[in-house]
Amino acid sequence: MHTNHQPIFGLVDVNSFYCSCERIFRPELRQRPVVVLSNSDLRGRNR
């Protein structure tokens, strides 16, 4: 019996989750655009 397995990929939009949580604690952000940024300079460094 031969089965051909195809990879399955999923995408999770965690940035939107962070914004939704912040809007719960800071209602003044509810009708405003919110941006999530990261400091990519620290990614992948091993000191």
Describe the structure concisely for a colleague.
This protein has 47 residues and is an all-alpha fold. The protein has one helix at residues 14-25.
How many helical elements? 1
Task: Give the number of DSSP strands.
Answer: 0
pLDDT < 50 stretches? none
The computed structural class is mainly alpha
- Shape estimate: elongated
Summarize the helix and strand pattern as letters.
H
Please state roughly what percent of the residues sit in beta strands, choosing from under 5%, 5-15%, 15-25%, 25-35%, 35-45% or over 45%.
under 5%
- Summarize the main sheet: none
- How far is it from the N-terminal to the C-terminal residue, by CA? 50 Å
Helix content: 25-40%
Gyration radius, rounded: 19 Å
List keywords for this structure.
DNA-directed DNA polymerase; elongated; plasmid; mainly alpha; 47 residues
Q: How is this structure best described in words?
A:
InterPro entries: DNA/RNA_pol_sf, UmuC. This is DNA-directed DNA polymerase. One of its GO terms (molecular function) is DNA-directed DNA polymerase activity. One of its GO terms (biological process) is DNA repair. With 47 residues, the chain is mostly helical. It has a domain of 29 residues. The protein contains one helix and no strands. The protein is elongated and about 60 Å long. The model has no long low-confidence stretch (mean pLDDT 79).
